[in-house]
TrEMBL record:
It comes from Streptomyces nitrosporeus. InterPro entries: MutT-like, NUDIX_hydrolase-like_dom_sf, NUDIX_hydrolase_CS, NUDIX_hydrolase_dom. GO terms for biological process: DNA repair; DNA replication. Belongs to the Nudix hydrolase family. The lineage of its organism: Bacteria, Bacillati, Actinomycetota, Actinomycetes, Kitasatosporales. Its EC number is 3.6.1.55. Residues 14-138 form the Nudix hydrolase domain. This is 8-oxo-dGTP diphosphatase.
Length: 144
């Protein structure tokens, strides 16, 4: 008799979730976005690579799909290890710095887009942004 899947049958994630994102800073403020699935949590724009897609390909595709712009002059900023805010699993995020090809506008799975200093009251940032990216940007002196 089939009992269906049990927790013991479920695959266990051994590798961290892979994400590619970019820091876009204009006038001392960081571009952050939230997803429709969690509109109150803000992330860096970006996403998960498709099969066989490299980091810059992922970044370009995600920016075009979600913001309607292309990342310009992307350069590697850091690799960040944290917990994915939505999935609650270990995550490895490759973070680039980039400029934008135009004016971004949220589309696809995005709920909101904001330019922030990171100090706004009530702003809920994903752990990777709050604990790793913001301190790095502050040390570099690029945030207002």
């Amino acid at each position: 008799m089939d009992q269906g899947n049990t927790a013991a049958d479920s695959p266990v994630r051994t590798e961290p979730l892979v994400v590619v994102a970019a820091v876009v800073v204009q006038d001392g403020r960081l571009l952050v976005v939230s997803k429709k699935a969690a509109p109150g949590i803000f992330y860096l724009p970006g996403g998960k690579p498709d099969a066989g897609e490299d980091a810059l390909g992922t970044l370009t595709r995600e920016f075009e799909e979600e913001l309607g712009v292309r990342p310009l002059e992307p350069r590697l900023l850091a690799d960040v290890e944290s917990i994915a805010a939505l999935e609650g699993v270990p995550m490895r995020m490759t973070v680039f710095e980039a400029l934008l090809s135009g004016t971004p506008s949220p589309a696809a799975e995005l709920a909101h887009m904001r330019w922030v200093s990171g100090d706004e009251e009530g702003l809920h940032l994903a752990p990777a942004v709050r604990d790793h990216v913001l301190p790095l940007l502050r040390r570099k002196g690029v945030l207002a």
